[in-house]
Automatic annotation (TrEMBL):
One of its GO terms (biological process) is positive regulation of amyloid-beta formation. This is Gamma-secretase activating protein. GO terms for cellular component: trans-Golgi network. Residues 540-645 form the Gamma-secretase-activating protein C-terminal domain.
Amino acid sequence: RILNVERNGNIIYTYKHLYTFEKDLHVISCSINSERTLLAASLVHSAKEGRKNELQPGSKCLTLLVEIHPVNNVKVLKAVDSSIWVQFLYPQVESHPPPENHLLLISEEKYIEKFHIHVIQEDGNKVVLRDSGHLPRERVAEDFVWAQWDMSEQRLYYIVLKVKTSPLASFTRELIFKCIQCLVLYVLRLVNFGCDDLQDQGNLSKHLTLCVFTNHTGSLCVCYSPKFDSWEKITYSVFYFHKGHSKTFTAALGSVDSLVTKGLTFLNLDYYVAVYLPGHFFHLLNIQHPDLICHSLFLTGNNEVVDMLPHSPLQSLSGSLVLDWCSGKLYRALLNQSYLLQFLWNTQLDCEKMAVLHCVLSCGRDPRFLEAKIIQWISENISTCHSFDLIQEFIIASSYWSIYPETSNIDKLLPYSSVLTWNTEIPGITLVTEEITLPFMKVHSFKGYWEKLNSNLEYVKCSKPCLLYNNSMVKREWHSLISEEVCPRLTPLFQEEDYHQRLLIGLMVSELREHLLRHLQGIEKKKIEQMVLDYISKLLDLICQILETSWRTHHLHPWVLHLRASAAEFTVFHIMTRILEATMSLFLPLPPGFHTLHTILGVHCLPLHNLLHYIDSGVLLLTETAVIRLMKDLDNSENNEKLKFSIIVRLPPHIGQKICRLWDHPMSSNIISRNHVKQLLLNYKKQPQSSMIDKSPGSVEFLPLNYFIEILTDIESSNQALYAFEGHDNVDAKFVEEAALKHTTMLLGL
């Protein structure tokens, strides 16, 4: 219990005293049971004070079991000339009191034993051994060459070397990797686990650095590196057993003068494993999605990140814990979110941008803040990335991480990245990928981690085609649904509620729901449907965030339409065009109103011929709101007349006629009149005239026009109900006559 912290940093604290040993003994291993009633310890005599952790010739190692609640009897478990490591096992579910305690003893003589210790309570709360004279024990393993204890998950990993002899007197070696979930019947067995050329099984630890890492997603990684045989390069391998393959990396160490004085360190960072050689390189490996090297980050000794890390030997422990051997300090290793964001702004390499982007999003702490920072970075660096589309990658990755923590196996069903292949080399490192033998699991019932690992292994075994969702089915259905609406050289007018985008969203919801229902077993339909809605809502929300950030950054606001754009409007138009390109190639929906805003900015920013080219090629899509604003807000200057007329002739006729009514211009009146006459004369049959033309007061002395107008008037009066159409009440023969005269006057220059 901490009592006080002084100004100079000294901490005053109290602690519970467990047991006192003689001063001439050194504790090399110690463990206490979960109830804090039993203490196990291994002690050695040392001839030299400065060599506390080495077994001296002639010294004896004592492994003791001590009753400490209260301090009472001491039982000697081992008295040997080799070191013993002790570890109490902790039950997954606490019970009061537990039926028995379990103690592992791992010997330097290459065997592992498990003691079963029964205790009883006496005189109230006094805890003693029930039968101290006889403690049942069993051999867990013999002749192992390497072992690792996972404290947080209570798992024991070890390797045994088996030699098979053939009738022809030849022999082969097999390294067999095993894992035991202590207190539960889980056994994992891997055959032919690398390092086949080792001749001396007793010196395996001197030949390589080896670590086993797992996480809650069911991943199983074994990392190892052989002893260095060159000062110019170093080789290390990572076995991704949950993926069914291994990767062997070879990293260049720079000049021959840059000697390697420290060993390689492997660190467990949840979704990542870090490989670190002090002063030389730092490799952050993506263990959830290891297929593409661009999703992992490799930094050489020239990078300041490598200089920031400790240069002393480190040992990785369970749960991202790291032990600094030199200082004796214990750390918890975490990815620094703020520094990753800073690195994202400064890096120039596309492969590093890709890796850090995913790394930042995987941190999961305050995702809204992270997304805002990344969007700001994208807005200012949108044209600096050439190997992949920044907007695509951000939208896909961020949407993935918003759903991923909720459901296991979703990483096999939803896309993690927009990039499917990566052929560009990563400076300073090469790799070789190989398929590996999958582990054999002897398990009574799959639960927790083992259930997830088994699911990953079954997926690899079945060799199914890729189950990742894509919008190809949506694309096919979408084209079939809208094919009838698209006419040659005519631009469909999108409504402000954006019927087509709503249709696209509906198709995507339907296809994604069916995809997840088909492959996610054991999850209720309602939860999957909500997951689909959340995922697609996230896609749309991210696009809105990008737009809002760009708008806010460049201080844009609602404006009156004009044809001279500012630099800020050019920038935002460019960003919107990139958003459109990103979503179109992935066939993703856009938020309502996007096309209106994009078209209006296009009118601001583009010369007329470029604007019309964008419209004809489908980059700019005309919406009713955008066209109405064009007709109402722009005056009738010569350039604006050209723009308006060019827009009208590109609209479907029935919509163009409606839009023309909003443009008070002779050209518009001419178009309306032509459409009206065409509609009236569509089924006209000539009838004999019973009277001469009756000129009304003020009629024009132009007989062909007079005769034509009389015919139109007669048709209108006799077929008014048939030929009347909504919105054109003010269009009649008189309107046609005035429009014709005005048009003729303009043509004659009068």
